[in-house]
């Protein structure tokens, strides 16, 4: 008897990941799971992007039929699109019951998305865990994704409120299903704490970089700029549709961080106007000391 499986049969026996959205992050997830031998089902509203991805990475379109085969579903669209997809597929996920996939997202904000997703999951009986891979580039789109995008990168998990045993089981399940991506470390937090910190570590950096290049002097930077300019302007290049949605959903925390940096910058401005070298030196030394202490903190 011939026990050799055909390629199609071998693929059908592999675990399956479903991916909504094939931008930079969704495309990188697709490539990572494809490289690990998983079957990849995906959907993107851009038909051309989906067609390109199906040439060498995506095996099938993510729909109700392929959803039933998924072990993991990753929502990598904008937050409102993720919720819309969950609402439209909630009944299907309900019918799959305990055999259904774990659903996670990869959005840069968690408050509004997770709270609505937790409610849907509770109502319809599927499992959802918020997730935010701390990786990416200043570029966007499927073409810039890579199979090793997440290697060594941190992953933040945002589970719903559960008892200790159920919480550990969910986190272990998420950790196992995400293993093909080779994340470097996992952190666990709440939606509010995630959004408070991410307003500083990510969104504020994009706002500052984006505002920095609006100086008229930026037009004359060629020949006068080196590493400092490149470091500070790297994330000025962004997707305004995506970032405006993320920032509005995190508006209060981000507005607070902008106020803090405005107040800090004003101290430097006043010291310069007053030709206060001693005061300016103290401000610079204070920032240097804080940065050194942050670098020495245990990870």
UniProtKB/TrEMBL annotation:
Domain Prephenate/arogenate dehydrogenase: 15-299
Gene Ontology MF terms in the entry: NAD+ binding; prephenate dehydrogenase (NAD+) activity; prephenate dehydrogenase (NADP+) activity
Record-linked SUPFAM superfamilies: 6-phosphogluconate dehydrogenase C-terminal domain-like, NAD(P)-binding Rossmann-fold domains
Entries under Pfam families matching the protein: PDH_C, PDH_N
Protein name: Prephenate dehydrogenase
Record InterPro entries: 6-PGluconate_DH-like_C_sf, NAD(P)-bd_dom_sf, PDH_C, PDH_N, Preph/Arog_dehydrog, Prephen_DH
One record GO biological process: tyrosine biosynthetic process
Record keywords, A-Z: Oxidoreductase
Keyword Zinc found: no
Family affiliation: Belongs to the prephenate/arogenate dehydrogenase family.
């Amino acid at each position: 008897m011939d026990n050799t499986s055909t390629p199609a049969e071998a693929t059908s026996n592999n675990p399956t990941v479903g991916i909504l959205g094939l931008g930079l992050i969704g495309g990188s997830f697709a490539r990572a799971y494809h490289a690990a031998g998983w079957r990849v089902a995906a959907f993107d509203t851009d038909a051309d992007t989906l067609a390109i991805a199906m040439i060498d990475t995506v095996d099938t379109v993510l729909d109700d039929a392929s959803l039933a085969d998924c072990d993991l579903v990753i929502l990598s669209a904008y937050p409102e699109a993720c919720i819309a997809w969950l609402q439209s597929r909630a009944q299907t996920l309900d019918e799959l019951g305990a055999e259904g996939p774990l659903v996670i997202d990869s959005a840069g904000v968690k408050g509004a998305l997770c709270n609505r997703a937790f409610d849907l999951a509770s109502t319809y009986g599927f499992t959802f865990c918020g997730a935010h891979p701390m990786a990416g580039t200043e570029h966007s789109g499927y073409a810039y994704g890579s199979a090793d995008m997440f290697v060594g990168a941190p992953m933040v998990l945002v589970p719903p409120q559960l008892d200790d045993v159920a919480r550990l089981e969910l986190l272990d399940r998420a950790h196992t299903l995400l293993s093909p991506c080779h994340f470097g470390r996992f952190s666990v937090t709440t939606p509010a704490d995630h959004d408070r910190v991410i307003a500083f570590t990510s969104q504020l950096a994009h706002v500052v970089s984006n505002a920095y290049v609006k100086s008229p002097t930026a037009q004359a930077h060629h020949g006068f700029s080196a590493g400092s300019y490149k470091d500070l302007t790297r994330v000025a290049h962004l997707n305004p549709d995506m970032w405006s949605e993320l920032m509005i959903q995190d508006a209060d925390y981000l507005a607070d961080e902008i106020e803090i940096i405005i107040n800090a910058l004003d101290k430097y401005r006043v010291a310069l106007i007053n030709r206060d070298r001693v005061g300016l030196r103290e401000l610079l030394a204070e920032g240097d000391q804080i940065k050194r202490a942050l670098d020495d903190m245990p990870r």
